Amino acid sequence: MEVKFIPTEQLKEKPDENALGFGNYFTDYMFTMDWTKEKGWHNAVIEPYGSIQLDPASMVLHYAQETFEGLKAYKTKEGKVLLFRPDMNAKRFANSNRRLCMEVLPEEMFVDAIATLVSREKEWIPTIEGTSLYIRPFMFATESAVGVHPSNAYKFMIVLSPVGAYYPEGVNPVKIYVEDEYVRATKGGTGFAKCGGNYAASIAAQVKAEKLGYTQVLWLDGVERKYVEEVGTMNAMFIIDRKIITAPCDGTVLPGVTRDSVIQLLKSWGYVVEERPLAIDELMEAGRNKTLQEAFGTGTAAVISPIGELSYKGESIIINDFQTGEITQRLYDTLTGIQWGKLEDSFHWTYEVN
Amino acid sequence: MEVKFIPTEQLKEKPDENALGFGNYFTDYMFTMDWTKEKGWHNAVIEPYGSIQLDPASMVLHYAQETFEGLKAYKTKEGKVLLFRPDMNAKRFANSNRRLCMEVLPEEMFVDAIATLVSREKEWIPTIEGTSLYIRPFMFATESAVGVHPSNAYKFMIVLSPVGAYYPEGVNPVKIYVEDEYVRATKGGTGFAKCGGNYAASIAAQVKAEKLGYTQVLWLDGVERKYVEEVGTMNAMFIIDRKIITAPCDGTVLPGVTRDSVIQLLKSWGYVVEERPLAIDELMEAGRNKTLQEAFGTGTAAVISPIGELSYKGESIIINDFQTGEITQRLYDTLTGIQWGKLEDSFHWTYEVN
Ligand SMILES: Cc1ncc(COP(=O)(O)O)c(C=O)c1O
Ligand SMILES: Cc1ncc(COP(=O)(O)O)c(C=O)c1O
């Protein structure tokens, strides 16, 4: 892939690494590339971060033909720059685009584009504990037309944001509200795709949960409102009687890269992992009788986030005395250890950017 | 509402009224207005139609916080300009925005903005049979941030497009494919809202139906895949044994302005209208034994669109010998008659633009 480079006139001042928050700052450069039926992928450019021009009839503004990904770059003590399983994001991006009838970006191009941009923006990778460079690849429909149909033109972009913790709680336990009014996904829908519409639809429940004092919602399935699916931007795992249980990826749940990595780690440590529908009633009962030992969310943004409390239909259960559990902590330490190049990468998950 | 006007340097040439298609041409001007927490609604402008500037981290490009409406302006023989029930679109727009936690535009402002823009663009309203000026109001999130939350800034816009028939078939019967794999909406989701995500999710089924030789899909409910909901961009009505049956508006179906108008007309003519779940099995059986007399879709774009054939699980039923039915035709004539100011507007549905 040939990438044109347009230098910026003025580099930005880098933000204080202690007060990054999540997604508030963007680096000096962005990557853009266009697709049309006639030309295929063309016009790959790394250029100064800045506004783009969009026709008001661009289909993305009306019919939300848009998909995205999220991954992170880490800088090791030795100054190496590592990505974590970018091939998984490339695959998921392709699957999201297929579901939305958007052009599919070849997986190597996806990884290449990220590596090229991150390599140029190395200086922006923060290094203090818990920080990283968040990478946001996204694609959207740019055809100007008012009928509903697959767009004949797309733009693929990557922006970078130095970030701290996703939740204000950091790696401390969060309180989760089990949502039984709003639904995130049903089979036959777009739950497994990382597309804008899923997130727009989810905001109402999140606002409601926050008003009630919770950090996030735990979604139930859309058909029976009976089975536990996932948390806002994390997959959810529950340790009941020493077994780890998580929702299966059969169409409604986002197949998380962290989820997959955690399952592999747990199995390698000898744990039993069950990917199966877990009824909210079973979960609450396990909470009551304390066989629910630990619970946590997994996701790129929050890494591993312990769940300290679950509230469902007015009843609250406290998990592990609202403390980070032993397995939760071990997963956090191992994953971040591998991501930061501090531990041996026996699964070959990291990808070095030159 | 004070609206600034920025004149264009060069008016466009108007397209041939016989070859408009749907949503391919846009008029000389567009309306834009911004909302921020600090300033509320501000900066209302009618300006030359053209590109807008968007930050690549604008939330609309990632999380699809975006809603839209669709209505039409008609020019009567006497040169009057009429809108059709714009207050209904204003209300639905507000409901869509509420569901997506977006700022709600006051209903009078919505209608005012449309009237002001259409009034300026009167010359663009085509007058030959079956044409009109399609009005597309839309709103989207403009905050630049990568976390999922309600945006703190929005842009409201209106663009206008002179249009002909929505379907290539015009007012001739269409063939409809009953979709039993993909799902459009479930209770607790966003089915009743006119938001981009619903349409992005629907494209795959539409592409599939078109490949199989059908014009559109008929959606089934997302829970049991048993009840008939609506068609791509139309509500669906079925006349079985002289009764008109249509899906209830209880969360999954878009409450169509045309649907509501048709129900009122039918009742005023003495017909029984049942808003109730209609099982696909009941519908197919009625098709087989010919008690299914007529079927049609209702929507602003297509007005009344007769359904000539339904295909479900490999079985096809032909409705009314693939001819436009009597009631279907009467509804089309009456509705378009009122919209064009040719018939008495006893329901006070039209709104004159000065
Ligand atoms: C809905 C949803 N579920 C789960 C996840 C976790 O996926 P990953 O581990 O790939 O970041 C995310 C975040 O990407 C998400 O948005
Ligand atoms: C999904 C859907 N259903 C129904 C309709 C019909 O609604 P209306 O009659 O207000 O145009 C539309 C079009 O607006 C639509 O997009």
Automatic annotation (TrEMBL), chains A, B:
One of its GO terms (molecular function) is branched-chain-amino-acid transaminase activity. Its cofactor is pyridoxal 5'-phosphate. Its EC number is 2.6.1.42. One of its GO terms (biological process) is L-leucine biosynthetic process. Pathway: Amino-acid biosynthesis; L-leucine biosynthesis; L-leucine from 3-methyl-2-oxobutanoate: step 4/4; Amino-acid biosynthesis; L-valine biosynthesis; L-valine from pyruvate: step 4/4; Amino-acid biosynthesis; L-isoleucine biosynthesis; L-isoleucine from 2-oxobutanoate: step 4/4. It is an enzyme of class 2 (transferase). It catalyses: L-valine + 2-oxoglutarate = 3-methyl-2-oxobutanoate + L-glutamate; L-isoleucine + 2-oxoglutarate = (S)-3-methyl-2-oxopentanoate + L-glutamate; L-leucine + 2-oxoglutarate = 4-methyl-2-oxopentanoate + L-glutamate. The keyword Lyase does not apply. Keywords: Amino-acid biosynthesis, Aminotransferase, Branched-chain amino acid biosynthesis, Pyridoxal phosphate, Transferase. It comes from the Bacteria. InterPro entries: Aminotrans_IV, Aminotransferase-like, B_amino_transII, BCAT-like_C, BCAT-like_N, BCAT_family. The modification N6-(pyridoxal phosphate)lysine is found at residue 194. Pfam families: Aminotran_4. Belongs to the class-IV pyridoxal-phosphate-dependent aminotransferase family. This is branched-chain-amino-acid transaminase. The lineage of its organism: Bacteria, Bacillati, Bacillota, Clostridia, Lachnospirales. The gene is ilvE.
